[in-house]
Every structure is written in structure tokens, then in C-alpha cells.
Write a structure and sequence with these properties.
The strands form four sheets. Strands 7-6-8-12-15-16 form a six-stranded mixed beta sheet, sandwiched between helices. Strands 3-2-1-4-5 form a five-stranded mixed beta sheet. By secondary structure, the protein is α/β, with parallel strands linked by helices. β2 (444-451) and β3 (454-461) form a beta hairpin. It has four domains: 2-200, Serine Threonine Protein Phosphatase 5, Tetratricopeptide repeat, CATH 1.25.40; 361-407; 431-548, Nucleotidyltransferase, domain 5; 550-750, Rossmann fold (3-Layer(aba) Sandwich), CATH 3.40.50.1460.
Length: 753
Amino acid sequence: MGGQYSELERSSEEGKDISSAKSTDLIEACISYSKLKKYNKLFACLDQLENNIKQGDKLVVHHGMFSWNYPENISVIPALLKAEAYVEFGDYEKSVSFAKTAYELLPAVEWTSKDRTNSWVRRFRIRSWGLLALAYALKGDHNQASQFVTQLENESATSSEFWLTPGGIQSAINKEKGFELARAYMALGQYDRILAAKGNFWDAFASVSEGMFGTLFAFVDLPKAFMTNKALYETGHIKEAKEGYDRLLSKPETKSNGEIYWAILLDRGRISQAEGNMNQAIDFYKQSIDVIESQRSTINTEASKIGFVGDKQAVYGRLIALLVEQGQAGEAFDYVERSKSRALVDMLASKKDFAAPARDPEKVKLVLAQLDTADLGMRVQDVDAKSDARSTGTRNLQVARDALQTAAPELSSLVTVTSVPSAKLSSLIGSDETLIEYYYNGDNLIAFVLSRTGLSVTKLNGSGLDSQVQALRAAIEQPGTETWQTPSRMLYEKLWKPLESSIPTKNVIIVAHGSLHYLPFSVLQASDGSLLIDSVGLRFLPSASVLKFLHPLSTKKDSQLLVLGNPDLGDAKLDLKFAESEARLIAGMNHTTRLLVRLDASETNFKKTAGIFSKLHFATHGKFQSDDPLNSGLYLAKDIKNDGVLTVGELYSMNLDADLVTLSACETGLGKVANGDDVVGLTRGFLYAGSRSIVASLWSVDDQATAILMKAFYENLSDKNKQDALRLAQLKSRKIFSHPFYWAAFQLTGRAD
């Protein structure tokens, strides 16, 4: 059947201008793009189809081999196909929204006979409920998902509904119901229910047909076989699952479906590890990661078929922990960096217009476009595709990656998974510095300590880490109390004390992970009452590999400063009186300063002038959107050219030449902490745009206390590096405002000098 969708695509496009086609011609093109996973064509097709329907072109003439697969009234279909596509892109909110839209459109479905109308309404209702159950389950809302599962279980066909196929509509509805329940059970992790109802779930659990071959096997039978073996494995039928997985791995065609191939390799590694065969487990995990990293970004092309979206970061976690246990610290460190890179690539996957600092920017843009095209091509599920054609596609993808790595290595690190070997990173660390990189997965917490003399690794106690970080943050936000000291001491004992003997230097680079990105390390308290800031100079990096890409200091003779303060945001409640005073004070400390306040502190003025300044200072509000990190940003005045929000996404399209960016704003240091984990926040964006160092805050700061701290910071810069200048300014502020709420929010990311 899959090959027929390729034929359907060809016939629907042949001799037609799809961009202006009527719904009768457009519907089959959209269906073929959906089935073949041709996302670059699908959304444009669906948008046009929706527009046609709004204009009244919603009744189609049936023709062709697939006319039985949709009614004459196609009002519901665009929403259903979009809901399914957004599941594959991991945007479950949009998937839920479109599935609900489809359900609300059901009364508009009409047919020439009452029975047929009722039958299509029932089928579309089942599909809508199934998509809602799937999307809610995958986003972690199991209560909502279970409600729709119950509705599906209670849905049944009536004996009068026979007309569509030789098997009758009752059979079609029951198969539809079985399919939706199967993937919902998978998404909910109810594997026992899958096995218990296996015989009733249409052919989704049919045994693998040994006669299948090539991509017909990979995209038709492999998903069904995976569902069965996954259910067996998760319910403790290990022997049967192992035999089933090994049969699948013995077929060369399995490699064609990377979204299932990596998951099989992961489970086989888990089985080998449980059997005590550690070398084999490591090999399976490495193979799984190679498959994961072969794609530019994570698009779960099989999610809408099998209801399963595995945690790709779990593979890294298992491999890293096992490598540490086997004494392979160097390899473990490399995979930690690769896991961060994978997460960053996924976060930035939707962005296309990167700035390309290179000798030939136009060539870089061309190579990036070729990379996108090759990546999308590898996701197409065309069962007619020959194995040599898929091999050519793989080669084209690698050629594009290699070309981008040569032309623009820093940009390459944002769109493909990369890492820098620990030996190379060691040479980039200052002689008076030590780098500590934390990594944890569940309760398994590991700290890597890297210096000029080498790499060591220490296993720490990760139990309750997230809740302890949250407790410290909550306590710090109560400046009238000293309750912060208890979680601070607990975290010192957990994160710092076991490493003290491995840290010979007074200056430390911290590479955090997960919730540790939200931790103000400077307030960690030893048993004698001293804080880390009393004896240690700290700077931070989003990943150790960033060391390779930190830009050298500016060669500009004059230290020019651009200050933007208290922009007019159109609401007096958002005015920052002390922030404007701070801006004027900082501006007055430098003879080559341009000060922009109120309406002049606009996004447009910043974009026009920022590139010529070596220092940038923002005294304004910031926003942090964990669900949409690229739209986190700084609030500036808006005008007819710009909306007044300088977003993270925009920073990746800018070229700056700044030695220092100071973000004296609310929560400017935060970004989305991905599962893997790099933080896509303003700090990362400014680093890529060309800033060497960023000072930013971890929580909404008190603007009066911040003004005092910032004055001291800039005074210190006259004869000290940024790391020491910030630390001494915080210590001075601490004498005035003893509680860490007022001074501990600020951290330096990037270069110390």
C-alpha cells in the first residue's frame, strides 16, 4: 500500500499547479504527503486546502484508488492531518488544538445518505479521540489521555453500517478503533493492555512477513513488529523480546527506519546490560546514538503510527553511566558533550536564518539549505525508494555536513551534533582554572573535573537533587529569612565537598546540567558558614565545547559602551525607576558612551548601532518562555519597524563584536532546560552573536540593589578582569544587603578576561 501513496503523489501533481489547485485535486496530494512524511510539501498543501474549504470548496468528486479513504465533504481532514503531523514534530499543544478543531467540525460532515454520514462522523470521531489520547499521553497528561481512551473503548459500530468495503464499515470502524487504542496504550506505557488485546488490534500486531523486503518492510511491517516486541520487553517477556529484536536487527532493511532502529538498539543494550554483557551493551548504545545523531533534528516520524516517542537522551544517560563504571572517563565526557549538542540542535531546529560568520556567507547559506533538503529527504517514507537511492541520500547528507563544518564550524555546532575532545578542551583552560562539568540522569549524578593536567570523574549522590535546588531557590526568594542556609549546605555537601581535593585552583568554570542551571553556586555554604564566593572565582559555560568558539577579545582601541535603560513599554507599571538611574550612572562612568532611555531605548536603535560597541548594558525587563525558548528576550521600546522584544532567535541572526554584555534585567540568564541539556537562553544567543562574556541574572532582581552592584562592577573593570570584577562587586553588595536574594543572581558566562 505504501508504494501506492508514491503513485498517488505523482498522479495528483502530474500536469497540475498544486499551488492553485481545487480541493478535488488537492486532497489526494495532501494525503500522499502526509503518508510519505514529506513535511516540506505537506503544510503548504494543508494550508491551501483549508483556505479552499473556507471559500466553500469543500465537496470533492471521488476518483482514483484512494477515494474510499475520505468522504465527499472534506472539512475535517486538514485539521486531522495537521494534528497527526504535529505529534511527529513533538508539538503536542498544537496537535491537541487541531484534533479538537477536527472534532468540532464533525457536524459539518455530510453525505448523500444518512447511514454514510453517520459512519464518517463515527470514524472521524474515533480518529479525533485517538489523536487527543495520543497527544495528551505524549505530553505527560495521562489523566486527559485516559479519558479519551475510555471513550474509544466504549465506541462500537452498529450492524447497519455496511457499505464501504467488502468487509463492511463495521470492520473499518473496529479497525480504526483498534489502531487508535493500540497507539494510545503504547503512549501511556500500558504494555500489558497491548498484549492482552493483541488479537483484536487489526493487523497492527501481525507477525513480521518474511516475504517483505526493502523499505516496504521498514515502514510497513517493522513498526508493527516493534510494537509487539516492545510490549513483550516492558512486560518482562525478555527472552521472547530478545529473540524478536534480534530477528529485526538481522534484516538490513531495519536500518532504513531510523526512528525505530535506534529504539531497538537501546532495548537490546538494556537486555545485554541486564545479562552482564557490558561490552555488548556499550556497543548497542553507541550504535543507537549514531542513528540518533544521523538526523539534524528530532522529528518522530513513527509517533503517529506506533504511539511511541522514546527518550533519546536516555540512551546517552545509560551509555555515560556505563562508560564511567567501566573506567572510560574520556569517552563518557565526550558523550556528555554530545548529549548537550543533541539537545541544542533540537531546540534550534525550527530556526533557518542563522548569521554565518565565515569568509563566504552566501556559500554557508547554500550549504545549510542543502543540509535541510538532504535531512528532509532522508525522512521520506517512500516504499518504492530503492536501497541505492537511500544510500545516495545518506551520502548527500554527510557531504552537506562536512561542507558546513569546513565553512562555518561554529554554525555547524548549532545544526549538527558535534563535540570537542577533552584533550583539546584541556589546552583551552587557563593554567589557574579548573572546569567542572556536571551530568545527571535520574539519581545518577556524575562530575567531570578537567584541568591542564587531565580529566577525572567522580560519582555523586543525585538523590533529590531537583527538589533541593528548588528549595534553595524558593528560600532565596524570601529575603526576610535565613531558611536558604539549610538547602545551601545540603547542596554544598552533595555537589562541591566530594570534589574539593580535585580542584587545585581558585578559579572554576562550571558547566551545569538540568536544574543546576538555576542554582546560584556562589551561595553554596560550607560547614564553617563560609560561602563559595568567599574563596572561589566562578564563570559558567553552557557546554565545555563552547571553549573552542569563544571569540578573542576585541582589538578596538576605545572601550565604547552602549547603555539602554528603562525603555518606554507603554505601561507605567513596567517602569524601572532605579534601572534608569543605574543606566545614567553607568553611562557617566565611561567617556565613550551612548545612552538610550525611554523611547530611544528601542529595539530598532539597538539593531542599528549595537555592532560598533565593545560593551552593551541593558537595564530593562526580560522574559523567559520555557515552552518557546527562542522567543524569550529583552523588552525594549517598540516602533513601526520592530515589536520591542529582542528575542533569542533574533540573536542567532546577528553579528556583534562585544567584549561584554550585561543584562541587568529579570531572569535574563534563564532559558529552556532541555532533557539533554543545553540551555537556549539569552546568554547562549549573545555568545553565538559575538559576545565574549555575558553577565546575567537567574531571578527577578531588586532594581535598587542591582544599581549598587552594577556601579561597583563597572568600577572594578578599570583594573580587574570580568570574573574578579563581578565577584568583588557581589561581595561589596553583600555587606549592604546580606541576603543572597539581592546579590547572588548574577553570573558570568563566557570569557573571564
